[in-house]
Design goal:
Helix content is 12%, strand content 39%. The protein is mainly β and 206 residues long. It catalyses: 2 6,7-dimethyl-8-(1-D-ribityl)lumazine + H(+) = 5-amino-6-(D-ribitylamino)uracil + riboflavin.
């Protein structure tokens, strides 16, 4: 499990491709490597990956075909920067909201506004996932736990403070960029349960 509090930005050092499999060498800050073991889980841009080996300050991860299909990991290249978070431990503070590291879908950046001291970014998700997105609800974008701002159709925005921009890759984001999305599990459960009970259907006309 993860908390959605990004622990820093890592750099892609190398990408090796094979049929149905990409292997990533990712350089993490040295102070974040203490206690890393083979088999440990690390969130890379919101996708839970398993450490397969370590060489110095580089960790190696394999991403299978299904992961590459559902996420943006297949588009990563040498030199790209990614958000990372090591798996939460019992007793850690949950500053964001609980995440599984299982990416549900991707979203496209449709606009970026930069008023003084903050940034508002608008995203568009596939129609099928819009039903789980509500104003002031939680969402994870590239592994970062964020609060949803306004929602219009299948578009929503988030408001980012300078510290979030500093500590994550959101300071580099551009229009038309594609990001990983993990829907809040509690919201998804509630919406799906109400749908099964018939409350998600239009009321009959009398």
């Amino acid at each position: 499990m993860f908390t959605g509090i990004v622990q820093g930005v890592a750099t892609i050092q190398e990408v090796s491709t094979a049929p149905g499999l990409n292997t990533y060498a990712i350089r993490l800050p040295a102070e974040r490597l203490e206690g890393v073991t083979i088999g440990a889980s690390v969130s890379i841009n919101g996708a839970c990956l398993t450490v397969t080996r370590q060489e110095g300050d580089c960790l190696y991860f394999d991403a299978m075909q299904e992961t590459l299909r559902l996420t943006t990991l297949g588009k990563l290249n040498q030199g790209d920067r990614v958000n990372f978070e090591r798996a939460a431990r019992i007793g850690d503070e949950i500053g964001g909201h609980l995440l599984s590291g299982h990416v549900h879908t991707t979203a496209t950046v449709t606009s970026i506004k930069r008023p003084e001291n903050n940034v508002t970014i608008e995203f568009e998700v596939p129609e099928a996932w819009a039903r789980y997105i509500f104003p002031k609800g939680y969402i994870a974008i590239n592994g970062a736990s964020l609060t949803i701002g306004e929602v219009t159709g299948n578009r929503f925005n988030v408001h980012l403070i300078p510290e979030t921009l500093r500590a994550t890759t959101f300071g580099d984001i551009q229009e038309s960029d594609v990001v990983n999305i993990e829907i809040d599990s509690q919201t998804q459960t509630i919406v799906d349960t109400l749908d099964r009970l018939g409350y998600d259907r239009p009321a009959p006309n009398h």
